[in-house]
Amino acid sequence: MQISVYLYALIACSGLTLSALENGSDAPALLLVSFDGFRADYLNKYSLPNLEKFFSDGVLVRELTNVFTTKTFPNHYSLVTGLYAESHGMLASIMYDPVSKKHFSIQNDSDPFWWDEAIPIWVSVEENGYRAAAAMWPGTDVNIHNHTLKYTFKYNSKVSFQARLRNLTQWMTEDKSVKFAALYWEEPDWSGHRYGPDNTTEMGNALKEVDSHIGFLMDHLNKTGLWGKINVIITSDHGMTQCSPERLIELDKCISAGSYTVVDLTPVAAIIPLEDNSTVYKNLSTCHEHMKVYLKNDVPDRLHYKNNERIQPIILVADEGWTIVKHGNLPRLGDHGYDNMLPSMHPFLAAHGPAFRKGYKMSSFNSVDLYPLMCHLVGISPKANNGSFARVRCALVNEQCGELALAVGIVIGVLIILTTFTCLFKLMKNRDASSSRPFARLELDDDDADDEPLLE
Ligand code: AMP
Ligand code: ZN
Ligand code: ZN
């Protein structure tokens, strides 16, 4: 019995270790889709029948904790590297590097310099001898680590969702070495900025269109024979919150325009003082009760936003729904970029395919956890990252987790305790038996000794 228990424990442990990495060549391809700015609670507020159909036969993660700043490029790069922004270097929509004196913006993003601090999954996939394909995912049209994708497009927002998907599936069906494909779509971010997330009519229209794209995706994967064969993940980079002309923070009211340069403005401003650091900091820190002001080294650790040259000396963070301007009008009715603790900044995730459980729901995990999960799915070793495979394994059909793992642990624990007690009990019984035998013998011998003369 003892041997079988230990064997069972050994098999269970080795099973867990072996399952940590699928064999790459056998692993089905993975399609990763991002609908920009899809706030997690849109799922509760709007009718999304196709998305519901997608995850009813797969997995839904209601909320992802994403990374600070909750902007498009930082979060899309975190999803594919598993790193916080300070570690992958894609820190904001507009950046300045004080050493090289280079400038970055999302319209001027093709210099590898800005991307090379990390290795995205598509580069690792190709380094492992497979192919990756992409349609407009940020960074996929850049030569990262001396690596240009064969199957990619130059970014063009005018290319339809259908055309993006058709190209990807054509590459995936014609070239079986394509293991990873990434698709990016601009909505509902665009409508969220323009109308604000509280405009339920306009957001309802935008989400109806997004949902119809998900319907097209399922139909098209069915037609091309990929549905149910490949793993598909639908997610997003961040949420959206309502802004208002009543919630403006005007820097010109606090500080003279000539005393600083602003790199990126709202809702997180990156400030380079042109005068004495402490005077600029003092003027800004008393500027507005709805704006937090940090010297670079004092940015809270939980934001993971200080260990990088590209982070400027002073960082301003507006409270939810507040907009930082130098002066003038509100630029957008909806915005994102705020503290990543805010639920309104969180996106969702849904997954479908042979690797995923069916009809399984999870409340949340971190967006950086997606990277080790995706490496597992395509069967490659992850690079060093800030994510955790253990936190996401429950989504997978072949993984022991949660209550099941707990139940197995309890059974093994009880068996070990029972075995130990049985051994101790046997040991004590043997001791009792061996210590009582000499006494019995002696008694018997005595009797025998007494009896013998009687017999004679
Ligand atoms: P934002 O809302 O400022 O964080 O950025 C979203 C916008 O970025 C989208 O509306 C797109 O127009 C733009 N965008 C997304 N991907 C790319 C890309 N690969 N290259 C250039 N612009 C992009
Ligand atoms: Zn975005
Ligand atoms: Zn946006």
Identify low-pLDDT runs.
1-20, 436-456
Strand segment count: 17
Average pLDDT rating: 90
Number of helices: 12
Q: Per DSSP, what share of the residues sits in E-state strands of 2 or more residues?
A: 15-25%
Query: Biggest sheet, strands in spatial order?
Result: 5-6-1-7-16-2-17
User: Roughly how much helix do the residues carry, as a percent range?
Assistant: 25-40%
Order of helices and strands: HEHHEHHEEHEHEHHEEEEEHEEEEEEHH
Q: What overall geometry do the principal axes of the alpha carbons give?
A: globular
For the largest beta-sheet, the strand count, sense and barrel status come to: 7 strands, mixed
In quaternary terms, these chains amount to: single chain
Small-molecule components bound:
adenosine monophosphate, zinc ion
Our Rg estimate from Cα atoms comes to 31 Å
Distance between the termini: 54 Å
Organism: Phoxinus phoxinus
EC number: 3.6.1.29
Signal peptide: 1-19
GO cellular component, one term: plasma membrane
Overview in brief:
This protein is an alpha/beta fold and 456 residues long. It has twelve helices and 17 strands.
What's the helix and strand layout?
Elements: H1 2-18, E1 30-35, H2 42-45, H3 49-56, E2 59-65, H4 72-81, H5 85-88, E3 94-97, E4 102-105, H6 121-127, E5 131-135, H7 161-174, E6 178-185, H8 189-195, H9 200-223, E7 231-235, E8 241-242, E9 248-250, E10 260-262, E11 268-273, H10 277-285, E12 291-295, E13 314-318, E14 323-325, E15 334-335, E16 349-352, E17 360-366, H11 370-378, H12 402-455
Parallel strand pairs: 1-6, 1-7, 2-17, 5-6, 9-14
Antiparallel strand pairs: 2-16, 3-4, 7-16, 8-15, 10-11, 11-13, 12-13
The structure holds adenosine monophosphate and zinc ion (2 copies).
